[in-house]
Amino acid sequence: MSSDLLRGFLFRGLMFEAEAGTFQSAGIQIGASSIAGEEALLTEQLAPFGLQRRDAALEMSRLYALLFCFENELRDFVRERLLENEGADWFSQLPPKIIGFAKARRDTALKDSWLEGQKTDDLGFLDFGHLGQIIINKWDCFKDIVPSQHWLSQRMDEIEKSRDFIAHNRLLLPSEFQRLYMYIADWNRVIGL
How far is 63 from 172, CA to CA, in rounded Å? Predict the structure, then answer.
């Protein structure tokens, strides 16, 4: 193949990739669907279990995905506000009990060298409930966004109860799904997501 012909193919390939990105960002599928591949893999992994258990798992997975996104956005929100208001050493200015909890969890994670995953984010080692405690403890950093400490506590307590249920693989009723959707939507509106 001549070098001019090869350059032409490469150029057209790069142009297609650039154009494909434009189409994909507009929601138009180009090429094989990654969703179809993920669904096939999920179907294969769940196949040994009964239909009722699989259906319940898939229903609960929606809530897990929602809580995963919410909790990690909340961690980022806390981190960004404290970094902005207290500087780079913001974590060292948290209550000693919270710092100690994170340090103990981080130390355990580092000892479990066989278990791969994120091991450097201090906020990642705190429990969900600690995040609300931090916001209340550092209220001056958050009061311009969060309506009130009562508003925060009420939602965080309700979300945490549902979160713990889900984390321990227990089923929630559809009414609890709606409560979670409502509280997380409230939070997202307040912080501008």
Answer: 9
Neighbours of 98 (CB within 10 A): 19
**CA 79 from centroid of its chain's CA atoms:** 14
Question: For 78, which DSSP code?
Answer: H
Q: How many residues does the chain have?
A: 193
| C-alpha 109: how far from chain center | 20
20-54 tens-digit pLDDT = 566 666 666 665 566 777 777 677 888 888 888 88
Tokens read off for 168: 């321990």
Pick from 178, 152, 151, 176: nearest CA to 164: 176
191 Cβ partners below 8 Å, 6+ apart?
A: 77, 145
Tokens of 169: 């693989």
pTM: 0.74
The torsion angles phi and psi of 89, rounded to 5 degrees, stand at -95, 25
